[in-house]
From TrEMBL:
This is Penicillin-binding protein 2. Residues 262-544 form the Penicillin-binding protein transpeptidase domain. It is found in: Membrane. Gene3D superfamilies: 3.30.450.330, DD-peptidase/beta-lactamase superfamily, Penicillin-binding protein 2a (Domain 2). Signal peptide: none annotated. It comes from Paracoccus hibiscisoli. The chain crosses the membrane at residues 49-68.
Amino acid sequence: MIRTPLRPLARILRARERGENPDDIEAENRRRRHEQIQDRARRRAEGRLIVMAGCFLLAFGTVAARMGTLASSEAAEPRGQVLSAQIISQRADITDRRGRVLATNLLTHSVYAHPHQMVDPVGTARGLAQIFPDLDVERLTRDFTGDRKFMWIKRKISPEQMQAVHDLGEPGLLFGPREMRIYPNADVASHILGGSGFGNEGVNSAEVIGIAGVEKAFDAWLRDPGNEGAPLALSIDLTLQQAMEDVLWSGMNVMNAKGATGILMEVKTGEILAMASLPDFDPNDRPRPLLTGEPSDSPLFNRAVQGQYELGSTFKIFPVAQALDLGLINPSSGINAQAPMRIGRFLINDFHNYGRELSATDVIVKSSNVATVRIAQMIGPDRQRDFLEKLGLFVPTPIEMVEAPTGQPLVPTRWPAVTSATVSFGHGLAASPLHLAVAYATIANGGKRVTPTLVHGRQRPEGAQVLSPRAAAMSVDMLRQVVTRGTARQAEVPGYEVAGKTGTADKPRAAGGYYKNKVIATFAAVFPASDPQYVLIVALDEPSTVINGTEVRTAGHTVVPVTAEVIRRIGPLLGLEPVGGDENLPTIAARFAPRVEPEDQAAVRLVANQ
């Protein structure tokens, strides 16, 4: 801006020439300058007022619009959102396939002591012993009156116990926050979940770590904050799991068995819908491992995964299916069943003399050891071993549990003719019930290898074609006839088209040889046979029952009725409505036939030829 001088020289000179006062010119210019300054200040003030008025108008308009929107909307309860990653649980929940909680976290407290800060150590010891009866008063008194500066009292306490400790009024007793793992369904699926405990811990926090089962197998994933607390969805169904465990407990009691196990698997996906091992435990109060006796005596022992059993005649379908696949036989082919059969210095017998010849189908239906061995001889030891290896019977199952590697099958190092013979009818090779479930699922799946899993919805590559679809279908048809007219007639549940095979194997002694009066009774079921969808394996450890005054241990009269009751209970839960079924089917205790019938493996023995 160009400033106008207050005393312009030209005007001053002219004013002096005319005799005027030059100061008047300066005064006039000063007045004009002040007027211009005032005009500019007024315009700036007016602009600011306009801007402020616009801001106030916009703000009040926004508030009015929001109030109008809220007034016209439907009332709803506000929901708080957790945005801070710091308060996400340290360990993710575990749920079943339907989202029902199997394992979660609970905020609790621990109680610890600073003995040197105690006012009444002796009285405090007595008070704590009353709140926690498992504490020793004398030991607490010694610790509180000694030289200790710090000691744990309890690492997990309930709110009621916390209040009781607080009421003692002892300044030397302090509390620390804890996040503990709880299992709301107690012992249901306990072997699958495994359990958890505390790792690194301090007075203000504790690290929850898995110690068994899927808790340990997925420990890193469950503790990963990158998952933002997303739960681990297992493949099991809580309702199916509970139903299976209930029936197995009843079966153990009725059959006087030492233990039981059951596995329900989807044929197409390999997902395990239920897997039980009894006796079990409560993971909220996990027992200590046994230091003496057999591993299976402990409730921590998972019979389904860790158990290594000779599974008896359930293996007979494997050489028959392989021979069908190789074109060596067809279902009606005649097989030499003349007993006894000599291999080296051993004799192999059947429960009954089935005559000189059986059809390949009747070899399975009547469960002939001799005829099964004849079929295995057609195949040859090398091809037999290769087929069983493809079924996964030589390596631990790849199930997502830390116990899986301990279920290494006991496979003969050598495979001579006698081994080939005994393995063909389920002796000489020990595997877990889960191995059996995978092998049967492979047959039921049109011969495609099935991989078991405990994780719901996990995408897996398609399995290898172990068996031709035609041979697999014929094998399932043979298994169906075992139920309709063979050793497993009590497994027939109307409307569910159950197919399967029984197996009764003598239990081996730890020192060698076999018990004469202890068996593992197993039934491997596939249903419905016309469109296989599920495989069910049920096994009883040392079952024994009395029918018509005769003690019976065979699978056909022990584990088969239990399996039938399991199918009756879980069939409707699976959505498989039975066609023409009776709503008032008898319970497990009443499903036994009144007569004793021969079973496939009851009296089969390998007798040394002396």
